[in-house]
Design a protein that fits this description.
Order of helices and strands: EEEEEEEEEEEE
Shape: elongated
Distance between the termini: 23 Å
Largest sheet: 6 strands, antiparallel
Oligomer: single chain
């Protein structure tokens, strides 16, 4: 039986190695939790779609191994634009694995017939590397 009072929520994960180019987007292979009607994600894609107005908590965790030494970051994009503060950066060495994580709030405004305020969230990796584990959690808070 479905509880109509459950919040919309998503947890999507990737547990197999994923090679990502600089400024590439992470794909999330499996939806472990997907409930409600505000959040959608097609397993294997890189986009989480938020279709209803509200305030959403977004948490991202990624284990990655950079191809070259230097700064490497993960950041949240909303409709292709970087979300301020939704970023984690490390100065890494090639071949070492690092865990990066951030949490952010995303506000989605109501849409109407002439304005589409749907949010399309993606996680971008700023330098080339291999992601060995990643997850994204999105929960409608209000």
């Amino acid at each position: 039986m479905v509880n109509i009072h459950d919040k919309s929520a998503l947890e999507a994960v990737t547990t197999t190695d994923q090679v990502v180019v600089a400024d590439g987007l992470l794909n999330f292979d499996t939806n472990t939790v997907l409930s409600g009607c505000s959040i959608t994600h097609i397993a294997g894609s890189n986009t989480v779609r938020i279709g209803k107005r509200g305030l959403y908590m977004v948490a991202v965790n990624v284990d990655l191994t950079p191809t070259a030494a230097g700064d490497i970051a993960i950041q949240l994009l909303n409709n292709g634009v970087v979300v301020p503060g939704a970023l984690a950066t490390v100065t890494g060495a090639a071949g070492d694995t690092y865990s990066l994580a951030f949490t952010a709030l995303v506000r989605v405004l109501p849409s109407c017939c002439v304005i589409d305020n749907t949010s399309n969230l993606q996680v971008q990796v700023t330098a080339a590397g291999t992601v060995t584990n990643a997850n994204i959690v999105v929960v409608k808070e209000a």
